[in-house]
Amino acid sequence: MLMVGSIVIRVDDLASQISFWTGALDYVLREPPEDDFALLQPRTGQGPNVSLDAVPSMRVLPPRIHLDLYAEDQAAEVRRLKDLGAREVQWSRKPADADYVIMEDPEGNRFCVVDAAGWPGWAGIQAT
């Protein structure tokens, strides 16, 4: 059996990325950060960890992997993420009826905010 334990994001400025991702995902530090690494976990304890790894790496576009963040209220979450420092990314090949908004964190790591208002998983999350 396998499960996702942690998603690793390469970062330049560890402190600012801790601030962005804890605010974006409502995560907390699992333990005090090291000089080049921080492990974030969901405040509720349920879900995968996010590891921030301050190791130089070349940015590749489009990224080979990215996060899809499900949003119950997509427009509100996009506004909130912009207030935290994220930016919306325009893509000429994005379908007109796309249910996602492409964004990037303050360092340019891309992710999508997916309109998941009807996702049945919300009931299990809100009950906890």
Automatic annotation (TrEMBL):
<dbReference type="InterPro" id="IPR029068">
    <property type="entry name" value="Glyas_Bleomycin-R_OHBP_Dase"/>
</dbReference>
<protein>
    <submittedName>
        <fullName>Uncharacterized protein</fullName>
    </submittedName>
</protein>
<dbReference type="InterPro" id="IPR041581">
    <property type="entry name" value="Glyoxalase_6"/>
</dbReference>
<dbReference type="InterPro" id="IPR037523">
    <property type="entry name" value="VOC_core"/>
</dbReference>
<dbReference type="Pfam" id="PF18029">
    <property type="entry name" value="Glyoxalase_6"/>
</dbReference>
